[in-house]
From TrEMBL:
Domain Hydantoinase A/oxoprolinase: 202-496
Coiled-coil region(s): none
GO MF entry, a single one: 5-oxoprolinase (ATP-hydrolyzing) activity
A single GO cellular-component term on record: cytosol
Cited Pfam families: Hydant_A_C, Hydant_A_N, Hydantoinase_A
Domain Hydantoinase/oxoprolinase N-terminal residue range list: 4-180
Domain Acetophenone carboxylase-like C-terminal, first and last residues per copy: 514-691
Record PANTHER family: 5-OXOPROLINASE RELATED (PTHR11365), HYPOTHETICAL 5-OXOPROLINASE (EUROFUNG)-RELATED (PTHR11365:SF23)
Name listed for the protein in its UniProt record: Hydantoinase/oxoprolinase family protein
One record GO biological process: glutathione metabolic process
SUPFAM superfamilies in UniProt: Actin-like ATPase domain
């Protein structure tokens, strides 16, 4: 009856408890324990359950998302990993695409491969592009290479042979050999991790999976054991970067798919709240401690991609990181969070981010040793935050420390007042986030003025009003439990399995019998996975996609493929779908060009979860403060953009505002997990699900 969502973030660990029968929600937010993330999870969950009058045996399902995979790759704290590939291709990780992400940088630094040259070996074998064996696998060669890698102390081995996605016989043989001879060694085969063309991306993804597999396996084992010890008897599921759920065993086998599990929860929450509030198209805005992320929900579906980079040398320069091809929700990221540091550069210009205050010290106002000014410090000085009610009063903010940091590092160097400095930081970070979101939405062929903005995260509701105004959004939505929305997104995500196969062919020359066999095999594998998780095949949905392009192009776009048996008559529908998608993205099509299919994808998914949320333990007693002013706590001196003097801004308790009540801006609405800042010329309504709907129409 109860489900618990747990999102381990960069600064805080968020927890959401759902009663599936009543829709009742309970929230908790606790500092992330970096030395051992499990400690923070257990402590936060124990506190949350205690306040709800429950114990761990009462929980049927726990859904977990973590940044552990991303952190391990960025910080290079994964396992010692070896790579076995086809002889002559040992250096593909360093050769890459021979692409310079900054052509004008003469001292350019490229990302260091996760597997050093001394641990990369080539084996004698060869398969052609049609899957024909040209050179058999040499067993003596295999035995010597594996023995050498084990002797050099590797914990994990990645196997990625040329053209193996067309015929995996050699990779399977290699994997079986390693597992039989050295069962303690972790093995990642490219045919299991990324069975599609593009040798560099496939090798990089497989090596990355091998690099983090021992760490994730040990972490999940420890988490499972501790949960069992304290009485949890239910089902533990893991959030994937695609916005779908998998089993613990699935996460152990393909931990690379956990790269963006936390942000994916936020996007799936966008799908849920879009349906709940009747908004078909939504842009999500998730601003936390270190970054802000935006994703697009179009027709109640998140935008998906298969291309991503991790551990970038230059954080926001495409091409400077390690490529990985996994299904994930497409989103843009900018280094703008509550802990982003503001500074004056060598040219005397005010800049914000991407550097952030460390998790241990935090912003200056946290009183934990931080001395440099951050976005949160400026928000406090402008009156947006309540120094006595941050996280419901669990953390008291030091306003004097914030003022000193802003004065010393920004106001004095620029010769301006502390208020002007704080407002400058606030406006710059809002402009940066709005520009990034605008470029992302326009790049998808959509108009940001047609999308309502759903804002969440600890800092999101503080900045969302100005970001929405800059984007031209018609409405701003602040969901119930905005500070922990990503964890809530875990609870409404379906369990699913996506299978991938490359079959490169012009659609006019497709072997339809072969294609139907490939699609049927992938569907069968997906149904089998769902049955293992306790879902009925009859209630599952099947989604087919194909990566297609004009012949000769280097990149593809994803196109919906009809279900059922395909035939030559299906070619017309595929061509039409490709043309529509190409026109949407690029504003044109290429007449008389040959359309080529490259990779086929099948997702088998359980039905999404839907419920009517009710915040638990909320006092429903109305606080009278005048007409339509339910929940008024008082007034606070607040500076809005363009103001030279503060206004006496009304401050409301979100839990005391009744459904279907209205109020107008300027206003500040406080809750435990976040604070909502509303500017002038806006009308706010609390809907029947306790979401704040803010109309921005002038």
């Amino acid at each position: 009856m109860y489900k618990l969502g747990i999102d381990i973030g960069g600064t805080f660990t968020d927890l959401v408890l759902l009663n599936e029968t009543t829709g009742e929600l309970n929230f908790n937010k606790t500092l992330t324990t970096y030395d051992n993330p499990t400690n923070g999870v257990i402590a936060g969950a124990t506190d949350l359950l205690s306040r709800a009058g429950l114990q761990f045996p009462d929980i049927g399902t726990i859904i977990h998302g973590t940044t552990l995979v991303t952190n391990a790759i960025i910080e290079r704290k994964g396992a010692k990993t070896g790579l076995i590939t086809t002889r002559g291709f040992e250096d593909v990780l360093e050769i890459g695409r021979e692409y310079r992400y900054d052509v004008y940088d003469l001292q350019i630094t490229m990302p260091e491969p996760l597997v050093p040259r001394t641990l990369r070996f080539g084996v004698s074998e060869r398969v052609d592009y049609q899957g024909n064996v040209l050179t058999p696998l040499m067993e003596d060669d295999v035995a010597h290479i594996v023995e050498e890698l084990v002797g050099r102390g590797v914990q994990s081995i990645a196997v990625c042979l040329l053209q193996s996605f067309t015929n995996p016989v050699h990779e399977r043989a290699l994997g079986n050999f390693i597992r039989q001879r050295y069962p303690e060694i972790y093995v990642s085969l490219s045919v299991d991790i990324m069975p599609e063309l593009r040798e560099y991306e496939r090798t990089s993804t497989t090596a990355m999976n091998a690099y983090v597999q021992p760490l994730i396996d040990q972490y999940l084992n420890a988490l499972n054991s501790q949960l069992t010890e304290i009485g949890f008897l239910g089902n533990l599921q893991i959030m994937l970067s695609s916005g779908r759920l998998t089993t613990v065993d699935g996460a152990r086998q393909k931990p690379i798919q956990l790269l963006e599990s936390g942000p994916a929860g936020g996007a799936m929450a966008g799908v849920f709240f879009g349906k709940l509030t009747g908004h078909t198209d939504i842009a999500t805005f998730d601003m936390g401690g270190t970054t802000a992320k935006t994703s697009l929900i179009f027709n109640h579906q998140p935008e998906l991609t298969n291309e991503f980079e991790v551990a970038r040398v230059s954080r926001f320069k495409k091409g400077s990181g390690l490529p990985v091809r996994i299904p994930l929700i497409d989103m843009t990221e900018i280094g703008a969070g509550g802990s982003s540091i503001a500074y004056v550069d060598k040219l005397g210009l005010l800049k914000v981010g991407p550097e952030s205050a460390t998790t241990e010290s935090g912003p200056a106002c946290y009183g934990r040793g931080g001395t440099r000014p951050t976005v949160t410090d400026c928000d406090l000085l402008l009156g947006y935050l309540n120094e006595d009610y941050f996280l419901g009063g669990s953390i008291r903010l030091d306003k004097a420390a914030a003022q000193h940091a802003v004065e010393e590092h920004i106001a004095k160097p620029l010769g301006i007042s502390v208020r002007e400095a704080a407002m400058g930081v606030h406006r710059i970070v809002n402009e940066n986030m709005a520009n990034a979101a605008r470029v992302h939405i326009l790049g998808k062929g959509h108009d940001p003025r047609n999308y309502s903005l759903l804002a969440f995260g600890g800092a999101g509701p503080v900045h969302a009003f100005d970001v929405a105004r800059l984007l031209g959004s018609p409405e701003l939505i602040i969901p119930v439990g905005a500070g922990v929305t990503s964890a809530l997104g875990f609870l409404v995500s379906p369990t699913a399995s996506e299978r991938v196969r490359s079959y490169v062919c012009p659609i006019a020359r497709l072997d339809w019998a072969r294609l139907n066999d490939v699609l049927a095999d992938m569907e069968e594998e997906g149904f089998h996975f769902l049955e293992q998780t306790g879902h009925k095949s009859a209630e599952a949905t099947v989604t087919r996609m194909a990566d297609m392009r004009y012949m000769g192009q280097g990149h593809e776009i994803s196109v919906r493929v009809p279900n059922g048996i395909l035939s030559p008559l299906s070619m017309v529908e595929l061509e039409a779908s490709f043309g529509e998608e190409y026109q949407l993205r690029f504003g044109t099509t290429i007449d008389n060009a040959v359309i080529e299919a490259v990779t086929w994808r099948v997702m088998v998914s359980s039905l999404p979860v839907f419920f009517s949320p009710k915040r638990a333990n909320i006092e429903q007693k109305r606080i009278e403060g005048g007409k339509d002013f339910s929940g008024l706590k008082g007034y606070r001196q607040v500076y809005y953009s363009g103001d030279t003097v503060p206004c006496a801004c009304p401050v409301y308790d979100r839990y005391q505002i009744r459904p279907n009540e209205y109020l107008s801006g300027p206003a500040i609405i406080e809750e435990v997990e976040s604070t909502v800042v509303i500017g002038n010329r806006a009308y706010v309504r609390m809907d029947e699900h306790r979401n704040l709907i803010i109309s921005l129409k002038r």
